[in-house]
């Protein structure tokens, strides 16, 4: 079935998929018999689809130019540009500008490309895949890089000597430490994704940094721009997702430990670096701000305690980290510094 000039992109997709109506929130691109989806970073990969690595902005632009040769693909890309407020609907946008802006969205990690499986239409035999010529040398697979930087969320100072565990696309594992600029870079990786995790065995609050958020930096820095050397920021041996638990009336260390499926000793060891009952009482006064005592003279937790916080560590695992993108992780030190501390 041929597409008419007045057909909308959704009608065009319907016409080129055998007349089967298929509505989807995804942005679709067609290349011959193959269909591709442009997904937002947080959207899961649909079943049967394969991620397509586009690398940096230049490589993404080259691939998108191929798609833009089709009028209806170009219309889809234009819709994306206006959806992300990169252009105004009443202003014309050239094909090159559309391709460049969508490529920027991909390089920043806001969008990613996935290839859909070939549809099975009743009565139609799918095209046979060409068998590789055994006599011809196999094409060399492009090697990619993992690029990650860890910085302080407030000062943007780099975090050095922070050890992370990497699970590479081939399934192998290795450890890596951030350098003095907070960078980890691993080269010569096959296409795929990397799982990045941080160990918290033996961690204490004093040595732990709290994960705040992850982002994507522009693929390339402006040529000739010199980066100002920053001083080393906060330091820490461990990185974790920290839960800040505000104590309430009637709670005990035992009940809090049970809520988070841990033990009182593990809770005390992480927060205060000790399991000694007398030292724990001192930390409840100084760090938690307890003021009430029971009949035996021990501090009890109350909603009036200031700051009244106990921290619970949770493992940090990022299971989908694309290659050839400059990832930045922001962290901070907890608890926040207190300007004034009065003793009882």
Automatic annotation (TrEMBL):
What's the protein name? Answer: LysM peptidoglycan-binding domain-containing protein
Which top-level group of life is the source organism from? Bacteria
Q: Where is the LysM domain?
A: 243-288
């Amino acid at each position: 079935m041929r597409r008419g000039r007045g057909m909308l992109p959704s009608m065009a997709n319907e016409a080129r998929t055998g007349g089967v109506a298929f509505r989807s929130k995804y942005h679709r691109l067609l290349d011959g018999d193959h269909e591709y989806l442009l997904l937002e970073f947080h959207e899961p990969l649909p079943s049967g689809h394969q991620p397509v690595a586009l690398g940096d902005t230049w490589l993404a632009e080259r691939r998108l130019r191929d798609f833009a040769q089709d009028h209806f693909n170009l219309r889809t890309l234009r819709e994306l540009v206006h959806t992300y407020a990169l252009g105004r609907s009443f202003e014309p946008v050239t094909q090159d500008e559309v391709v460049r802006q969508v490529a920027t969205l991909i390089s920043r990690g806001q969008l990613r490309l996935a290839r859909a499986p070939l549809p099975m239409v009743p009565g139609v035999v799918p095209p046979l895949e060409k068998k590789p010529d055994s006599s011809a040398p196999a094409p060399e697979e492009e090697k990619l890089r993992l690029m990650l930087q860890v910085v302080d969320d407030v000062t943007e100072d780099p975090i050095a000597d922070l050890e992370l565990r990497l699970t590479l696309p081939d399934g192998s594992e290795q450890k890596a430490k951030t350098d003095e600029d907070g960078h980890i870079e691993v080269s010569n990786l096959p296409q795929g994704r990397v799982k990045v995790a941080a160990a918290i065995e033996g961690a204490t609050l004093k040595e732990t940094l709290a994960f705040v958020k992850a982002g994507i930096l522009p693929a390339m820095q402006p040529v000739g721009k010199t980066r100002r050397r920053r001083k080393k920021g906060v330091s820490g041996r461990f990185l974790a997702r920290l839960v800040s638990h505000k104590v309430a009336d009637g709670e005990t260390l035992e009940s809090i430990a049970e809520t988070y499926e841990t033990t009182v000793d593990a809770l005390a060891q992480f927060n205060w670096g000790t399991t000694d009952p007398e030292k724990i009482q001192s930390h409840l006064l100084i760090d938690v701000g307890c003021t009430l005592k029971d009949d035996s003279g021990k501090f009890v937790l109350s909603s009036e305690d200031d700051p009244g916080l106990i921290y619970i560590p949770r493992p940090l695992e990022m299971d989908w980290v694309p290659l050839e993108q400059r990832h930045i992780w922001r962290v901070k030190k907890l608890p926040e510094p207190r300007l004034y501390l009065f003793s009882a």
